[in-house]
Amino acid sequence: MSAEDKSQVKIRLFTREKDESLHVQDTPMYAPISLKRYGLSEIVNHLLESEKPIPFDFLIDGELLRTSLQDYLVKKGLSSEASLTVEYTRAILPPSYLSSFNNEDWISSLDVDNESKYIVSGSYDGIVRTWDMSGKVQKQYSGHSGPIRAIKVISSTRIVSSGNDRTLRLWKTKNDDLKAIPQDIDDEDDEANIEDGKTLAILEGHKAPVVSIDVSNNSRILSASYDNSIGFWSTIYKEMNVVDPMEELNNSNNKISTAAKKRRRLTLKDGTIRRRAPLALLESHNAPVEATAFDFNDNTVGYSVSQDHTIKTWDLVTSRCVDTKTTSYSLLSLAQMPTLNLLACGSSARHITLHDPRVDSTSKITQQQLIGHKNFVVSLDTCPENEYILCSGSHDGTVKVWDVRSSTAMYTITREDPSVEKGVNDKVFAVKWAETVGIISGGQDKKIQFNKGDNIFKN
After folding, report:
1. Which residues pair with 304 in a beta bridge?
2. CB distance 381 to 352 below 8 Å
3. Calpha distance 162→126 (Å, rounded)
4. C-alpha–C-alpha distance, residues 431 and 423, integer Å
5. Which of 40, 120, 282, 299 could form a disulfide with 230 if both were Cys (CB 3.0 to 4.6 A apart)?
6. Which positions ≥6 away from 416 have C-beta within 8 Å?
7. How far is CA 72 from CA 23, 88, 406, in A?
8. Long-range contact set of residues 4-8: C-beta below 8 Å, sequence gap at least 24
């Protein structure tokens, strides 16, 4: 190879993009070793004959390229005679700050109703709020006697929340576009007798704060509690276990009599709220449970992470723990990346670990570590449009955006409101990545912050 040739390196370009129009011919070529991401993007766009340039990111051996090819070769101890296999994928541009909403107290949890286009927040003042995109509070839900720790949208007419008062609450929400009563109401009159914004039922059974909840698509709820247990609940009244057996009377055919229905309607009008017990309490952890989630593809499987350093897999049909994976640190948050068969777990050790739940617990359980936060990683969510991307919220006051094909963060989002003094009361407690909204975060600064990328996050 001549001196001139040594300034080039042999590369093979490929992509996993599902859009076939973004695939180039899979043949090796020589590229100047001085090229960085922009120069490589120019090559790919030239090969694609793109009318409008598309920004790309590049990965070599699963690591995002953030330097020149020459710097990469030096870092890896490779010569310019090496042959590099380079993967390209649509670039994700830095999420830009849009706005912040002011709240009365710390924001502990966030969710989005994609159908009705509103945001739901849980706060340490014990109130659930729904917001429109202009920052106006549409409804306040009061009833918890302590800080709210988790909220989840069930449907366009239902929200569930949980908190330090050891209970979960099902709330009725209003949807003017709804044409029919939801199927999870077993008696239409029950819905009619409860005002919008009021409690439909209180779910009791935990003996300590309930800090995480997840909802399946078959009307089930999982709750994680500091009493070391996971609650398994139904949102369907006729399937719920009654806390007070005198609350409802069933006949021999297990159907509620007309008299019992009338008595129940009168009770609801009188302001008494139903109290329901869990279908099951799942007990195997020996320390507070921090997060729980249904398997994305199978509602009969659940996962949980705990301060006892373990990840547990649950068979929800038999209420049994079927697998336990042990780490060396407390686990504080959980998100599933279903197409990659990975569980992302935020930890007290300031990193995020990726685990394959299918791997036997006797084998190596940590697939990868994402390192960059400087304090506890307490909240995780996945990008709704890219299977490799997730975001994390931390007590270090930042939200980081990750591509799991690299161990370092792509971008860091800070608290951007100019009225907030940096480094003071800026812990992030909750993050939510919504397709139509972007990345939403909330925390100790009592603000809901919005950040959105300028490009399409499609893979």
Report:
1. 292, 312
2. no
3. 10
4. 19
5. 282
6. 97, 100, 449, 451
7. 24, 16, 14
8. 5/30, 6/80, 6/81, 7/32, 7/33, 7/34, 7/80, 8/32, 8/33, 8/80
- Alpha-helical segments (H) within 141-237: 188-192
Q: How many CB atoms lie within 10 A of CB 175?
A: 16
Contact at 8 Å (CB) between 373 and 427? no
Strand partners, 321: 314
Residue 10 to residue 36: CA distance in whole angstroms: 15
Token pair, residue 6, equals: 């040594």
Burial (Cβ within 10 Å: 0-12, 13-18, ≥19) of residue 297: exposed
Confidence (pTM) = 0.82
SS (H, E, C) 390-428: EEEEECCCEEEEEECCCCCCCEEEECCCCCCCCCCCCCE
As given in the structure block, the two tokens for residue 130 are 């729904």
Residue pair 274/237 in contact (Cβ under 8 Å)? The answer is yes
User: Cα–Cα distances in Å, from 87 out to 22, 69, 189?
Assistant: 12, 13, 58
Cβ proximity of 89 and 386 under 8 Å: no
The pLDDT averaged over each successive group of 10 residues in the chain (459 residues) is 65 87 87 93 92 90 86 90 90 87 96 87 96 92 96 92 96 61 44 67 96 93 98 85 55 44 44 84 97 96 97 96 94 96 96 89 70 96 90 96 87 78 78 91 95 54
CA–CA separation, 60 and 58 (whole Å): 7
Query: Are 221 and 179 contacting, i.e. CB atoms less than 8 angstroms apart?
Result: no
Kindly state the DSSP code that residue 190 receives in the 8-state scheme: H
Tally of helices (H runs) and strands (E runs) in the chain: 4, 35
Give the alpha-carbon dihedral of 274, 160, 357, 62, to 10 degrees: 180
Integer Cα distance of 366 and 329 in angstroms: 12
Q: Residues 450, 456, 459, CA angle at the centre, nearest 5°?
A: 120
Rg of the chain in Å (alpha carbons): 25
Alpha-carbon distance of 257 to 117, in angstroms, equals: 39
